[in-house]
Amino acid sequence: MRLFAATVLILSSLLLGASALAEQPKPKELNNVEIQSKQPGAGTLVMRFEDGILQYTFIDGSMRGGGGVNLDYTARKIGDEMYLVSWHDEVYSNHFVVVLDLKNKVDYTDTIMFYGTDDQNVFWADGVIEKVTSIE
Hints:
This protein has 136 residues and is mainly beta. The protein has one helix and eight strands, in the order H-E-E-E-E-E-E-E-E. It has one helix at residues 2-19, and strands at residues 33-39, 43-50, 53-58, 67-79, 82-89, 94-101, 106-113, 121-134. A hairpin with a 3-residue loop joins strand 1 and strand 2. The longest helix is centred in the N-terminal third of the chain and has 18 residues, at 2-19. The protein is globular. The model has no long low-confidence stretch (mean pLDDT 86).
């Protein structure tokens, strides 16, 4: 499964980058959904996808209080209850590519944090999805 996720992340980064050149409609996938995921070493991450906009925040752990608001995101369904999501948080110079596997309750993240600074960090992370909620 990790090899599949890694392959998807690499290919998707290329595809999402190319598709970003064209004007993109707001994503329909994951719209009005909130996902809570435990990220080892960082804390619990809450991602809220609402009306085509993403908000994310760490509610505990070493990253508590970190996050972003009013972010455009790209999402594609890539399998049964599996989504590829990408967003760029320009405020903090972060770029995220995430595979959300809702069926197996796991996520795989490839992130470049604080790019262009002395603190630049590139890492992979595997998370455990704890809760998925519809926003009505």
